[in-house]
Structure formats: C-alpha cells, structure tokens
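The freezer alarm interrupted the setup, so I double-checked each line after restarting. Inputs confirmed:
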Amino acid sequence: MSSAIVNRQTFDEVMVPNYSPAAFIPVSGKGSRLWDQDGNEYIDFASGIAVTSLGHLHPELTRVLHEQVDRLWHLSNTFTNEPALRLARRLTESTFAERVFFSNSGAEANEAALKLARRYAFDHFGAEKTKIVSCKQSFHGRTLFTVSVGGQPKYTEGFAPLPGDLDHIEFNNLAAAEAAIDGNTCAVIVEPVQGEGGVLPASPEYLKKLRELCDKHGALLIFDEVQIGVGRSGSLFAYMGYGVTPDILTSAKALGNGFPVGAMLTTKKIAASFVVGTHGSTYGGNPLACVVADKVIELVNTPEVLDGVKRRHDLIVDGLARINETQRVFRDVRGAGLLIGAELTGELAGKSKDFVNVGAKHGLVILVAGPNVVRFAPSLVIPEDDLQEGLKRFEAVVAEVLAAQSV
Ligand code: PLP
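Predicted 3D structure, all chains:
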C-alpha cells in the first residue's frame, strides 16, 4: 500500500491541509545548500525558519547525535539523564538563569513560562493576580494558551472559548505598557525582536520600561527568544545585547539546529513554584535532543560565530541596499543580526509570497514575515560565497517579480 514514491501531490492526499508547502521537496542538505527530489540545488536563506543556524548536517552535531543514538535514546522523567544535566549546566553557566525546564518546541517552552508565571503569582500574591500582558502582532506558538497570548487574532479565530485575563498592547509603545501593566499583572511576555509579526526589533527603551514596570508591580518579565535566541541577534541571547534581563526566557528552534528541543530558563526563586507534579513532558529533556543542543550552544557561543553574525548582517543589508538602488522594492530593511526583514514598498504590498515562489525558481529559499515583508534568516555560519551567490539570485528574483508586476 504505502508506495515508495511520494511527491508534493501526496501531501494533498494524506496530510491535514493546515500548511501549504512549496511545490518541491528538499531531500538533502549540506551547510547552506539544499537539494530537491529532482537534484535542483538551492541556497538556503531560511534555515527552516531560523532553526538550522549552524547549517545542515553540521559534522560536530551529526557526530554527537550518532554517538548518543548508539548509547541511549530515552528514559522517562522518573530518571534524569546526563545530556540534559550537561545542557542545563551549560545554559545556566552562560546566561542569567539558575534553573532550566526542557520541552520539545517553542510553544511548549512558552506554555511552561506562562503557566509558571501564573503559578508563581498564585503562590506569592494570591489568586487574583492573573493578567498576562503581551504585544499585538506577537507570535508565541500554536497551543491554545500561547496562540491566545499571541497578538494575531487571525490565529485564534474559531477556537473560542480562549483562556482569559489576557491583554494585548501595542508593541514598542511605552505609554500603552504603562497603562496596561498594573498590580493584577502576573507576567509580561515579549519577543525582543518580533519575528512572525514582521521582523520588528523592540527599542532598548521599551524593554527597559517593561523591566521597570514589572519590577514595580511584581510581575514577571518573559522574553520569548524562540526565534531570535541562540546567536541569531549577534549575542548568545538577544537580552544580552539589550542589557535587559528577563525573569524567564524561552528558547527552541536553533537550540537543536533541527532536532526538536525547547527550553525555559529562569531563576531559582521563580522555578521553586514548579513543585513536583505541577508541570511535565514525556519527551522534554530527551537525551538525543539535549546532546545536540549542548553542542549547539558550545559552537555558537564563541566570538568567531557571534562576530561573524554581525559581519554577515552588514553584507546582507549592503547587498539589499544595492539592489534597492536600481530596483526600488523596499521601503525599509530592518532586524537584528541574521534575522532581517525587508518591507515592500506600497506598490508591492501583499506580494511577499511572490518573492518566495519566484525565489524557488532561481534556487533560493527565503521566507516571508507577513504579506509585506520578505524575511532572511540564513545560517549564522553561511560561507560568504554562498551569501553572495544568494544575493545574486535574489537580485534576479526581484527583477522577475517586478517584471511580472509591470505586465
Ligand atoms: N515563539 C516565537 C517567537 C516563534 O517565532 C515561534 C515559532 O515561529 C514560536 C514561539 C513557536 O515555536 P514552535 O513552532 O517550536 O512551537
């Protein structure tokens, strides 16, 4: 029955239709290149969605995974395991955090963070302090709690009743934060750089203000670094570059470079509210995932990789500026490190997906961040030749999209 031949059409025949994947199916990758079923080659400026930050098939990651595959795949939470402990030790030694909880995804890391914030407030302030403040256009995952906290109503449509006592405020607006955060607030959650919402960096003043307001009102400040964390901003975590320390930080995506793993980082005092039995996950802290993530952090947290992010950022931003000089397509290029968003001019509004589709024809994988923003999230270690070749291909993509526009 299950034929060996599968193709894009098979998706429509056997998969739930909640995604609309590309017409081609990548089957192998190496570094910043991908190859599809027909042998076509692509430059990868997407890294999944900011996941394979050390490129595909990084030899060190492959090695540690193979070693662990031959040793032990799974225990349960009735045991702890060495890779999880080593990774937690490394994360606590390299960040503000003193305690770590492992999950399998970003949504689950955020779910844990939000539950912990509610529980901490309950333990320390009583049952009334339940309000969670988040930002419009934010994205925190697809579980019912995280999608409700997220600031994009299109993602909650039809899923009511939703969890309650959530307040969505305008991102980067200090007065709105001041008005919303009060004595009933148990947590404020924010992406230091909004990813899905259009690649919008928070201003340093905004994050400082959120920190101040949380301190004033006894609320916990949660940084969702699922997309921008693990080196993508040019710091190991973006909070380090901003100089504003959260109470809880969530990580996933690049943490496993493609092996599913998420983490919630916090302090000893806050972690104490998750007593035995309050929260859990069958796979969270899985040895295979943790052995990879431990190596990822070791490899990313070096001056070579982090400085390289800044250098590559400049190369891309300069390259886009050059393209924009001759073919005016962007009204704004912004972001941090290697999460870069190029917002289309008014004439091209709503057309970001066209760039992705035409990109595939030119052997280039790029992303959108909403209908008006083309998003670039290449590997942090993309060779500069691949980067220049990708920019060259992108220039051809721009020309083709504009040509189609004018007919
Ligand atoms: N938080 C942010 C900032 C994200 O960008 C994402 C995914 O795009 C998530 C959370 C959800 O992560 P996951 O898809 O691993 O559940």
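Quick read of the result. The chain has 14 helices and 17 strands.
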